[in-house]
Structure formats: structure tokens, C-alpha cells
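Reminder to self: C-alpha cells first, then the designed residues, so the page reads top to bottom the way the pipeline ran.
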């Protein structure tokens, strides 16, 4: 997701179904408290939230 991949692209690279990826992505959004707001790009917000809370060091 941080690489800008679609759910389909993530599913293909992990050899999982797209619906499985969608469930995990939606779970991630929920855990980060990212509601569906038209002006909010949740994938970008999720990456930014991760970066804010990730331990310092190389990524």
C-alpha cells in the first residue's frame, strides 16, 4: 500500500485474493481510525500514520 499499489496488485504479488487484501486494508484503516471521508485519501493517511508511529531508523 505504501508503494501505491492497488488491492489487485497487492493480491497478485502476494498470491492472495483481492477480497482478502481488501479486508486487511479495511482493517488497517479501522485500526488507524481512518473513516471514509470524501476529502481524505485513506491510503496516504495510513502511510503517514505509520510513519508517525514507526520507530526511528532505516525503513
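Designed residues (59 positions):
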Amino acid at each position: 500500500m505504501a508503494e501505491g499499489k492497488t488491492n489487485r496488485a497487492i493480491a497478485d504479488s502476494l498470491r492472495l485474493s483481492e477480497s482478502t487484501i481488501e479486508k486487511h486494508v479495511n482493517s488497517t484503516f479501522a485500526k488507524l481510525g481512518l473513516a471514509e471521508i470524501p476529502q481524505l485519501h485513506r491510503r496516504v493517511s495510513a502511510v503517514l500514520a505509520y510513519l508517525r508511529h514507526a520507530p526511528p531508523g532505516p525503513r
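The helical segments are 7-14, 18-31, 42-53.
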